[in-house]
Design brief:
about 375 residues, alpha/beta, Hypothetical protein af1432, 15 helices
Length: about 375
């Protein structure tokens, strides 16, 4: 089964492709409606998932043109957009022939459920308006009842409009707060790039690795999104470590290593006591990302499930990227060497450092991690 994803945001494309591939679906992608139509005519997909706000050809125009093509019009069409829209826009989408209208990332589970149903039964559930049935009025009072019914309908429509307006305002406020938290995280994360450009690239890849393994390990969509955004902040505490130690081109002395280890505590202190789910997880990851499954990590010496699952995911991808990357004290290693070190061990790394289930997921999906590294190095 091939699913065509249409979105002009590369990160959104990557996340959705990764999610669908982890569920066993084939994917194709396009950056706008015009490109998608061209690709689909040459090789029709089994299903299309489209954003709305896109250059060249927006989602509504794309859907309208899609349904005009005889070879495409019966292929299920799902709108999946992060842009808040009015109910009229949702109705417009369904009037154009779209099978579903979903909001990302809140409706990610519903999206997967719809795709699964289509794969099994070769159809998608249509979103149908609720039918309101009215009892026929008594004939001699029909005039009065019709007028009374019209008044009730107007009142109901007015209440629904007011409720919808309040919901729009609430969703807009929540979205602004969410964007503010994410921007704060991104700006704090970028501070690391002023110390070491290689570290900055490492942080960008970490978010992509964690999204991949979060999907594979079955974290829900909200948790996976938070982890993806928060995980690049794990080394924020290095801003408090001297360059003489952080960028030393050789092994650290035991005393220097004890100082370097404090970056976990420093990072957690910077991020603590926030009401944001993103910053709460970032603080937890900053403090615990060097803990080990076998209890040999730091700073607390936690072991096994005492370590939160998101930190366990973070631990293995952080180690993989550190092995692959150039550091002041070592050259970069190739993928095969990194894979061997993590799965077989060396003088510093042991398979027992990692959650066995997550290590097994790494064994299965390691080529996807390699692709992320090679694409963003």
């Amino acid at each position: 089964m091939t699913i065509l994803i249409v979105d002009d945001n590369e990160q959104n494309l990557y996340h959705l492709e990764t999610l669908l591939k982890s569920k066993g679906y084939g994917t194709a992608s396009a950056a706008n409606g015009a490109e998608a139509l061209s690709k689909a005519k040459a090789s029709p997909p089994d299903l299309v998932i489209s954003d709305i706000l896109m250059p060249v050809m927006d989602g509504f125009t794309f859907c309208r043109n899609w349904k005009k093509e005889e070879i495409l019009q019966n292929i299920p069409f799902i709108f999946y957009t992060a842009t808040y829209t009015h109910s009229q826009d949702r109705q417009l989408a369904l009037n154009l022939g779209a099978d579903m209208f979903l909001i990302k990332p809140e409706d990610s589970e519903m999206l997967l459920g719809a795709i699964k149903e289509f794969a099994v039964s070769n159809r998608l559930p249509k979103q149908k308006p609720v039918e309101v049935k009215q009892l026929p009025p008594d004939e001699e009072d029909s005039g009065y009842l019709k007028q009374y019914n019209a008044v009730l309908v107007r009142k109901l429509e007015n209440k629904m409009f007011q409720l919808e307006q309040k919901n729009r305002e609430l969703e807009k406020a929540k979205d602004e707060i969410r964007k503010g938290y994410i921007e704060t995280i991104q700006r704090l994360t970028s501070a690391a790039e002023y110390r070491d450009k290689e570290t900055g690239l490492h942080l960008k890849r970490i978010g992509m690795y964690t999204m991949l393994l979060s999907d594979v390990m079955g974290l829900n969509g909200r948790m996976a999104e938070i982890l993806c955004i928060a995980s690049p902040m794990h080394d924020l505490g290095k801003v408090g470590i001297s360059d003489n130690i952080l960028l030393k081109p050789g092994p650290l002395t035991p005393e220097e290593f004890e100082i370097a280890k404090q970056h976990t505590v420093i990072g957690a202190e910077i991020l603590k006591d926030s009401d944001s789910d993103f910053l709460k997880m970032a603080s937890e990851i900053a403090l615990l990302h060097h803990e080990r499954w076998d209890g040999t990590g730091y700073p607390k010496g936690l072991k096994q499930e005492e370590i939160p699952v998101e930190v366990r995911i973070m631990s293995i991808v952080d180690q993989y990227d550190a092995i692959r990357s150039k550091r002041p004290y070592k050259p970069p290693f190739d993928h095969q060497t990194a894979y061997k070190i993590l799965t077989e061990g060396d003088e510093k790394s042991k398979p027992g450092h990692f959650d066995p289930a997550i290590l097994q997921a790494f064994r299965k999906w390691h080529r996807e991690l390699e692709n992320i590294y090679e694409t963003h190095k």
